[in-house]
Design brief:
By secondary structure, the chain is mostly helical. Helix content is 58%, strand content 0%. Helix 3 packs antiparallel against helix 7.
């Protein structure tokens, strides 16, 4: 059975239909949905603030990332823009919890957008791989950051953040694997899920968070 591409924003009913398509070709997905239900959508507003928040979330726990972001958002008068970020001193950015490296990355992102070298709005006209290539030109923003942005902010249904730890653990649980799969294994296992691998990733986050699959 050939899966149909999803061209609508991944809102609740649309995401559920995509998961149903995946379940129709993968019995493990069908079993998971029967046990834990459908995942909730993870939509984010496209633009600077969302991409900055993704950077803040790199290599820290979900709780720590939320705390840092809340402080940073407050420092930007609850409306993060490139100009407001650039107006903050290094000391102010350290005070909200950003490391020196992340301050550098955040300023680089703000400067790229303010200077016009990065047009986030223009990404909608690019293919997934071209958009990823454009975003990863920025220092400190690798493939994971780009894939997360494409999935959450642009509703790219096949964006596949296979390097995400929770997605890997979700795959391990879904497929009953002895060890956590690496990127190569993730790509192989997800190949039948094209062009809905991003929807599958959202389900795998749901699997990761569901204790019912642990025992």
């Amino acid at each position: 059975m050939k899966l149909e591409p999803c061209i609508e924003a991944l809102r609740g009913p649309v995401l559920a239909r995509a998961i149903d398509q995946l379940a129709s070709i993968d019995s493990d997905i069908r079993t998971a949905v029967a046990r834990i239900g459908y995942p909730i959508p993870r939509l984010r507003q496209p633009g600077f603030a969302t991409f900055l928040r993704i950077m803040v979330s790199q290599q820290v726990s979900t709780r720590a990332a939320a705390a840092i972001w809340n402080r940073l958002e407050a420092a930007c008068n609850h409306e993060p823009t490139p100009e407001r970020l650039l107006s903050l001193s290094d000391d102010e950015l350290r005070a909200v919890g950003l490391s020196g490296r992340k301050i550098e990355y955040g300023r680089g992102l703000a400067l790229a957008i303010a200077g016009g070298s990065l047009d986030l709005d223009g990404l909608v006209h690019l293919s997934d791989e071209d958009a990823i290539a454009k975003l990863t030109e920025l220092r400190g923003f690798g493939r994971w950051s780009a894939e997360i942005y494409l999935l959450f902010a642009l509703s790219r249904a096949d964006s596949w953040p296979a390097d995400d730890l929770a997605v890997q653990i979700g795959m391990q649980r879904l497929k009953g694997l002895e060890t956590r799969p690496d990127r190569k294994t993730m790509d192989r296992l997800a190949e039948p899920w094209r062009p809905l691998r991003g929807c599958a990733a959202i389900l795998l986050w749901h699997v990761y968070g569901a204790a019912t699959l642990d025992g």
